[in-house]
Amino acid sequence: MTSFEPVEIAAGPYQLRPWPVAHADLDEVLTEFCLDPVAKAGIAAFNGPLEDTVAGLRERRLTGWDTGLYLGWGIREATTGRCVGEVTLIHVDLTNQASEIGYTTRPGDRGRGVMALAVPAACRWGFGGLGLHRIALGHMVDNTGSQRVAEKCGFTYEGLARGDYLNHGVHQDTMWWSLLATD
Ligand SMILES: CC(C)(COP(=O)(O)OP(=O)(O)OC[C@H]1O[C@@H](n2cnc3c(N)ncnc32)[C@H](O)[C@@H]1OP(=O)(O)O)[C@@H](O)C(=O)NCCC(=O)NCCS
Asked: How is the chain split into domains, by residue range?
């Protein structure tokens, strides 16, 4: 288990603030995700009984930098501090210099270029700050928004993993992409 010191990252008009250092609105944001049909359709972890699900999600975000399993940032407007979404480096493996990335924009802030800025900023830090070589990105086949984020952020499509993701009791195929430090 590797522990990481929470780090803030600038992303143009946004500031990525690690959840452990700024979490006053974490429950509000997570509750919104768990009630949002689009987020629930794309991310299995947002499904389940509301209170228990939010508690589990909160725990993961507050302890994730200590365990290295979940380096998550709230994406905040730099001027107001308002949270517009979250981006996360998941399962950071320094031995293999690899990680995964995940993200969700708050419903009212979608389509404004939040992830087009936040994902590259988190990746840049993953490569430059952590020395990662590879960051993987996976999404279900019908998640066109996430696919567009992958394309827009310069990820290379690698292929379809069949039945890779259990969501809503169904084994869903996942489209996998990667970004390398050398890309
Ligand atoms: C996918 C998601 C994160 C996109 O976030 P966003 O902040 O709205 O994305 P951006 O505004 O930065 O858009 C990036 C690009 O994707 C496009 N895009 C975003 N959502 C789209 C959608 N639903 N359909 C088609 N294109 C979409 C944008 O138009 C933009 O491309 P462009 O500049 O060429 O027009 C957001 O829809 C979301 O939170 N979905 C629910 C959670 C989820 O599925 N997360 C990913 C799990 S793998």
From this structure: 9-134
- The tokens describing 67, both together, are 């365990």
pTM (global) more than 0.85: yes
Q: Using CA positions, which residue lies closest to atom 25 of ligand 1? A: 145
pLDDT digits (tens, 9 = 90+) for 35-49: 999 999 999 999 999
**pLDDT for residue 1:** 74
110 lines ligand 1 (CB under 6 A): yes
Q: Ligand 1 pocket, 119 CB below 6 A?
A: no
Task: Answer whether 88 contacts ligand 1 (Cβ < 6 A).
Answer: no
Which CATH number fits the domain 9-134, given the four candidates 3.40.50.11690, 1.10.287.3510, 3.40.50.1110, 3.40.630.30?
Answer: 3.40.630.30
Give the whole-angstrom CA distance, residue 127 versus residue 107. 29
**Do residues 137 and 177 touch, judged by C-beta distance below 8 A?**
yes
Q: 128-159: per-residue pLDDT in tens?
A: 999 999 999 999 999 999 999 999 999 999 99
Atom of ligand 1 nearest to the CA of 107: 39
Neighbouring C-beta atoms of residue 160, cutoff 10 Å: 11
